[in-house]
């Protein structure tokens, strides 16, 4: 495999491995939030934020842990015939399914970027152009100038009414990392079909 592909696989795998090892402790965050929810409902006034915050923590846990799960091969598989196949046939099948997964993740990524831009008050035009302009303005003219590009920030329709852009940003990042990990797995499958290792 070319050096550039090897470097890409090592880079993506290292990022997703480290992030996955950190995010796995998010389960304790969720347990803490839900325990506080139970305690506050039993002994005090119920907290408005606990259920929705637990949902946000679960989304972050799931979406940022997805690339790590793909990398470790611990994602769910229908293993009816797969375990009897040779390593080369498994790699061929995995490469074909990764292409389908990459298409699906590409569609999800477009929707996530659009939703993220919407949560920042962008209701017209292309979301990628808006986010690019927001980022470049932030780094060239500063946070105040970037803040002027923002519109009405989307809020949850619940009683707590948190702003939604942080969780939508996490979802966008997680889907992007999953797409990058899927491409890394594709390159590893191609290498295995050729009888090489990355």
TrEMBL record:
Keywords: Cell inner membrane, Cell membrane, Membrane, Transmembrane, Transmembrane helix, Transport. It holds the Pfam family DctQ. InterPro entries: DctQ (IPR055348), TRAP_DctQ (IPR007387). It is a multi-pass membrane protein. GO terms for cellular component: plasma membrane. Its main location: membrane. It is found in: Cell inner membrane. The chain crosses the membrane at residues 21-39, 51-70, 91-113, 163-184. It comes from the Bacteria. Residues 30-126 form the Tripartite ATP-independent periplasmic transporters DctQ component domain. Signal peptide: none annotated. GO terms for molecular function: transmembrane transporter activity. Part of the tripartite ATP-independent periplasmic (TRAP) transport system. PANTHER family: 2,3-DIKETO-L-GULONATE TRAP TRANSPORTER SMALL PERMEASE PROTEIN YIAM (PTHR35011), SLL1102 PROTEIN (PTHR35011:SF4). The complex comprises the extracytoplasmic solute receptor protein and the two transmembrane proteins. Belongs to the TRAP transporter small permease family. This is TRAP transporter small permease protein. It comes from Thalassovita mediterranea.
